[in-house]
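Quick start: load a record and inspect it. Here is Alpha/beta fold hydrolase:
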Amino acid sequence: MNANSSRHNEAITSYSHAPGRTVTAGGVTYAYRELGPRGGIPVVFLVHLAATLDNWDPRVVDPIAERHHVIAFDNRGVGASTGAVPDTIESMADDAFAFITALGFSTVDILGFSLGGMIAQALVIEHPDLVRRLILTGTGPAGGADIDKVVGTTYYDILRATFTRKDPKEFLFFNRDGAGKRAARAFIERLDERTLDRDAKITVKAFRTQLKAIKRWGRSAPADLLAVTQPTFIANGDNDRMVPTALSDDMHRRIAGSQLCIYPNSGHGAIFQYHREFVSAAIQFLDS
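Running the structure step on this input writes:
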């Protein structure tokens, strides 16, 4: 295991300027970026379907990194990370564990969005001692109703985006009303703020394997969320077409003591549309 560059003392708090790093574990070299002050418990960000390091909204990352050590990484076989994408969520969670422990951490906070939230649930059930606090956004539990329909929704919206020459995330993450369209355009623009050292895009094969894993997760036996004893904050929009909003309510009922925030007039990407409100709540949760 080796980190390819020494950790510097000065804290970078801009995700757009966070240097690219790598660490090798179990024969896989993981690409990652870290920012924020060192020394405390880091917040590890687990990203969504088809996403690379370049898909995190700096308006979500940067405010959290002002007071917390933030780490984001490419899953195995995605972006600049080596290896092949696993076809189960549980294997992706094993990779997350390998990555985190390769960096030398025994306790972390987790923020997972969409696919990342599924990986987070598998991780916390398999390695409960690793996770102190858990933030689950735009996601659903194993065996959750209609999660397996993500595949059809995704391909449909990719087609819509192709015909209109827009980014598929504008359809998948946001409502198609005035507020949603404005939020979508602003979000896509923010993702382009990093101009140097951009990540490699996900391959079609890797994307399809992730979709297969999500479908399998949706059709698997329901997870025992009673086993999740960590403080948990759940957030989503009230109109999530990808991972139905009802599943956020479901997780909230089944994870004892969890907090739930459903943002109005928003979809799968509610935490990006309401980034100020979400970040404020997330920081309060992490610091409480």
